[in-house]
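Check my protein:
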Amino acid sequence: MKVNTNLKTEKIVYFIRHGQSKANREGLFSSPDTPLTDMGLKQALQLGIKLQDKDISQIVASPDLRSRQTADIIAQQIGLNKRYIKILDELHERRFGALAGTPRQSEKHFAYTFNRDGDAETRHQLIERMKKAIQKLKAIQVQKGYILVVGHTVSGYFMRELLARHETYEDFSQNYHLSHGAILELKINNN
């Protein structure tokens, strides 16, 4: 019996944050239908140019409008047919419930210290959702090239920490910020 020694045990995935949204610009807790600003549209175009040499063959995006807009623009910039954009529900922005549309104290409050207020999603719920997202990313097969994930600051942060084998929020690094336009390389172990 011949053993295939070419099986990859690790998958490289590029993760980006969507372009600037109206809620980002105004310092508000966002909702799923928050669109990109003119600056966000420009950032998506610039990301598309930056990603032209990354051999992207599949885009996986959050279902939120600003991520879908970013994914569409990048696909056009890199010459990828839109049929290779997959929406992954688990990548949606953290749900803030009644806080959506209200002012945030700061980006740090949003990403690190915010845990629950009313009907908002807890960190534990977010961790469980990101674990599911990682499992679904593992299952996506590409013949060649790489997967680009278009998501949100918090989803990128939680995915990065979970992939570093930090299982609880208390284990997470507290030094994290993903700017619009930044490209994060994630390594997903396929085992």
User: Anything to note?
Assistant: The chain has six helices and five strands. Residues 1-6 have pLDDT under 50 and may be disordered. The longest strand covers residues 10-17.
